[in-house]
Specification:
The chain is of the alpha/beta class and 351 residues long. It is 26% helix and 25% strand.
Length: 351
């Protein structure tokens, strides 16, 4: 790069920084205002390679309980609180795991924006009082995860592969690598999970009570931001405590009457396992909607179908009622798990 190009690039960077600084000053003026007449501030989304980021503080949103929030920055937790409608509007658009861009004002963090998200874990939050599509919206559970640990117990409550299949779809939708973690193996035999052999899904079996299998799980977590998902009562919070080697998360028991787990985690929180490994615990999800996945696209979320689907008679075959379907034939011949195919049909019928 010549001297002229270098100076031009430097000038552009300085102008961009001045623009961001002016915006920050406007944001600071609104921190104490409850109702500003100025235009409402929008959440700024920075490119990860934006040179302005080098001049600003960054951290991970580690806790969120409106109107308070926690940012993990340079190994320290910083507590913040919204004190204006503008800041409250920004906070409502954030999720645990967001890479926060902020500045300090009166020893308090002021959120300026976030960097682009690389992954997300979402579910459908439905309004039972409304039957239209407008009655449902995307609820972002966490973002920027590298690994989703799908926690399922072998007993109390019993193992349900149907829910695992739904989580696998959600992981693929959100660009997250999944791992199946079977818990409570001290209570019952490990169930048959051979239906997942053809989809490259790591499976680890553990006991939080005896620590069996924890050594096999740790290498998958190393250096990653991980989110624990699964039904209530399967042992997510117990697993967090086991990994952290301290009582950090509340745990509960399964209801004897219903056989279902009770919610013990009521909010999302990021825990630090080591300087490069993070754990995000989530409340148990009793219902998991599948967002923006229509009947024609659902087949794409079952990777074991792909190599056979090219031989179907119809290019847009749903592998359900069409004749000469190579996927159905592969199921009959045992190349595709019958359990996985049945799960696909069940989800397809409800979508």
């Amino acid at each position: 790069m010549g001297n002229k190009d270098w100076y031009t690039e430097r000038w552009k960077n300085k102008q961009a920084l001045k623009k961001k600084t002016r915006r920050l000053e406007k944001l600071k003026r609104n921190v104490k205002k409850d109702n500003s007449d100025e235009d409402s501030l929008e959440l700024t989304i920075y490119d990860s390679d934006d040179p302005v980021l080098g001049e600003l503080n960054q951290g991970i949103l580690a806790g969120l309980s409106y109107p308070t929030y926690t940012i993990l920055s340079k190994g320290k937790f910083i507590q913040g609180m919204t004190e204006s409608k503008e800041q409250g509007g920004i906070l409502s658009k954030l999720s645990i795991g967001d890479n926060i861009v902020f500045d300090m004002y009166d020893e308090k963090p002021v959120i300026m924006g976030i960097t682009q998200r690389r992954s997300k874990l979402v579910r459908l939050r439905a309004d039972a009082s409304r039957r239209s599509q407008a009655g449902a919206e995307e609820q972002v559970i966490a973002v920027n995860m590298d690994l989703a640990i799908i926690v399922a117990s072998v007993a109390q409550p019993t193992f349900h592969p149907r829910l695992v299949d739904r989580y696998l779809i959600v992981c693929q939708y959100g660009n997250i690598r999944p791992l199946l973690c079977l818990t409570k193996i001290d209570l019952a035999p490990i169930p048959d999970v051979s239906m997942y052999r053809g989809i490259d899904l790591p499976v680890v079996s553990i006991s939080n009570k005896t620590n069996e299998g924890i050594d096999q799980l740790l290498p998958y977590l190393n250096g990653k931001c991980c989110v624990l998902v699964g039904n209530s009562g399967v042992g997510k919070s117990s697993l967090v405590n086991t990994l952290l080697k301290r009582e950090e998360a509340l745990t509960g028991e399964v209801s004897k009457k219903s056989g279902k787990g009770r919610h013990t985690t009521s909010a999302y929180m990021l825990h630090v396992l080591d300087k490069s490994t993070y754990l995000i615990d989530t409340p148990g999800i009793r219902s998991l909607g599948l967002l923006d996945i229509d009947k024609r696209s659902l087949r794409l979320y079952f990777p074991e179908f792909h190599e056979f689907a090219t031989n179907c008679k119809f290019n847009d075959c749903t592998h359900y009622h069409e004749p000469d379907c190579a996927v159905k034939k592969a199921v009959e011949e045992g190349f595709i798990s019958q359990e996985r195919y049945d799960s696909y049909i069940r989800i397809l019928s409800k979508s």
